[in-house]
Specification:
single chain; alpha/beta; seven-stranded mixed beta sheet; disordered N terminus
Length: about 375
Amino acid sequence: MSHQHPSDQRFETLAIHAGNTADPLTGAVVPPIYQVSTYKQDGVGGLRGGYEYSRSANPTRTALEENLAALEGGRRGLAFASGLAAEDCLLRTLLAPGDHVVIPDDAYGGTFRLFAKVVSRWGVEFSVADTSDPASVRAALTPRTKAIWVETPSNPLLNITDIAGLAGIARQAGARLVVDNTFASPYLQQPLALGADVVVHSTTKYMGGHSDVVGGALIVDDAELGDELAYHQNAMGAVAGPFDAWLVLRGVKTLAVRMDRHSENATRIAEMLTKHPRVSKVLYPGLPGHPGHEVAAKQMKAFGGMVSFQVVDGEEAAVAVCDRAKLFTLGESLGGVESLIEHPGRMTHASAAGSALEVPSDLVRLSVGIESCDDLLADLKQALG
């Protein structure tokens, strides 16, 4: 955590101030975009402020990394070119050929593809488990399990995993608990405080918040693991560029107020959908009938902006709802200020088709934005017909 920002400050304060030190040269209150590749050294081996080459470190990226560490309550934050670049660095740091990972049966399609098509070629094995069920996770463990991977809420089925409960299972197994915190954001949920070893983010989503940047992050509290990850980040090189780091840092400043509105709007939309005759099932952890509701209420500040639902008349009807929406933009990704709608089976989760992670074909996923909720409700009602 940045030394200028004591950890007793509250989240909303840290979001704006951690890592955001006024520029010593001009007093600029926003960190400059250091759009530079190399740095003048004070004599051979004399680094000014520790910077020599922007793959290894860049002051704009450092500001973001300090901010990310502070928001997740960790010691070390690392910023990457994308969420999958962060995941790739983590997997190659933690694992060697012959190792085993337990992954969720409802993981993000890109994460599944990374395990199934890329990492598996290097002799790393994985098993799929229902991470919301501790018995399922225990059954998937092997003597070679080095990591348990969790998404909560999960993408796109919004399943909830008890982070503290799984942290205990991971410790007993001598494995690291990795939590993808993209859907919740650190404002709603802080996995390290609940016992996780590593937090993963696609900063493209809620952290950036404006659909204008692609990025990823890893945050850890273990200094030694932080050093190992930083070594691999530099060795492999998929770092966040300075302008991208600056955009995420800018987005994070309003994370708390955005997440409040995302959660508020999503709650109203989920309640409307539960009463709609064309909807067979609503997946939102804020609903009392959701199987993970109690766990979510315990480990999250609010329930987030993602809502999925299943349509009564099946796949074609679900696709038609996506096509008829006007205010909800048909598109992949999530977490921006504008509302998005998509059909996971044909879009974001097509890579999981035919696997244990295949999603229902009648499923529609919403990323509920921060527009007027009345306008969003009206649009969904006309789209459902």
